[in-house]
From TrEMBL:
Family annotation (PROSITE patterns): DENN
One Pfam family hit: uDENN
SMART domains: DENN (SM00799), uDENN (SM00800)
GO process annotations (BP): retrograde transport, endosome to Golgi
Domain UDENN: 24-284
Name of encoding gene: Dennd5a_0
Name listed for the protein in its UniProt record: DEN5A protein
Keywords: Guanine-nucleotide releasing factor
Protein source organism: Syrrhaptes paradoxus
Domain of life: Eukaryota
Amino acid sequence: SAPGRFADYFVICGLDTETGLEPDELSGENFEQTPLRRTFKSKVLARYPENVEWNPFDQDAVGMLCMPKGLAFKTQADSREPQFHSFIITREDGSRTFGFSLTFFEEVTSKQICSAMQTLYHMHNAEYDILQTPPTNDKDSCSSTWDCNGTAVSKLQRFNSYDISRDTLYVSKCICLITPMSFMKACKKVLEQLHQAVTSPQPPPLPLESYIYNILYEVPLPPAGRSLKFSGVYGPIICQRPSTSELPLFDFPVQEVFELLGVENVVQLFTCALLEFQILLYSQ
């Protein structure tokens, strides 16, 4: 049985520089997109601990749910604000484990990866130039690439948005906590403070490993009906677990539901729930 730790795993997902740029099959073929807009396969780079017996690590599920859209590349001209999201892994026996991920962008230091991205742009632009060359056959004939007005039908567009000698290349990376309970706000603060420590010019008060060790091995789950306060990198973090006589733990901001769906849709959704309708939410 689980020993009642606050978190079971700390996970890092991102670009594997040894395997390089691999197309992400799950997102489908998107070769008509410019290389910076394509998605590439992300991998679990590290996890701590290696495995716990009460919650076996599912590398495929965690890797996919941490970065569901795969790797993303940007340059210094693009917005690179960190993004936070959560997910749930439900096992065959109905038990659940919760994941909380913070995705951010870091500079690509591998010359091989930068060269590979430059090569993809050369190939993309060369194909674009071929498609932009007018057909040499009879003007009255039409091809699959051109319409009868001599206009290119292809969706390919030429963009010189990455130059290895001019631009700085950034790639997405993710840090994640896998927990037995959905303490969303506390996990978000932990990850944000860890990210702040990594990007800050000043080193944190203690080595980052000590904070990760603390959250994995020394911070317990709060007992039912009690609060828990523990130290983060830059300040205290507090979470509260409802008692058995209260509503179950729900640590997510209801405000976001109204912002995403609107008041009328939320009322309609709530009505359908009360009437026990089957509800399907579809999203990108």
